[in-house]
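Teaching soon. Got one?

===
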Amino acid sequence: MPTILITGANRGIGLEMAKQYATDGWDVIGTARNPEKAQELNEIGNARTMQLDAADDASVESFTSELGDRPIDLYVHNAGIYGPQEFDRDGWLELMNVNVVAPVKLANALKNNVAQSNDKKMVVISSQVGSIAENESGDMMYYRSSKAAVNQAWKSLANQWKDEGLTLTMMHPGWVQTDMGGPHADLTPAESVSGMRQVIDNIDHAQTGAFHDYSGREIPW
């Protein structure tokens, strides 16, 4: 069976993704900073919970060492934070570390695992607010900047690894009813994940480096 690795799989979109892929028979590896607290993830039948703080190099090295050379068909970097809402140098740097540096670090660490699989796909959960073309309000500057930066980094990786057969894409999950999105958001996690899965399934290698939302709409840079 194919294997999916999902970071931040202990709640919200990541947890729903783990549930849906597990239900469809995939082998699921879900990461959490505190696996002992990831009760719902731990209860999924064919899912394995592994400890990972993707923003910490020592944790990434320990994680990849434990993972070994296991092939990963689909790597989804879902873990992220919202960050400060007003100027805070340390908070902004932490935001960039978690939302930009961490997924790029882990993508490099997992490159060989993904390259050895059948599907060879890497997805980062981004946001349409990372689109410069669609920024008409100027709000969420710090969060926006992190998503624009990870889009640029992921696009660069897509180009660097294109000849090696890896397919990378950035996904906007929509406005989802999670801790970050709030209870009045447009979509349930199930609706968001179902849509993203269809998009991910249909993306072929010719589309590597594309930026889509959960409905399949290509988002302008």
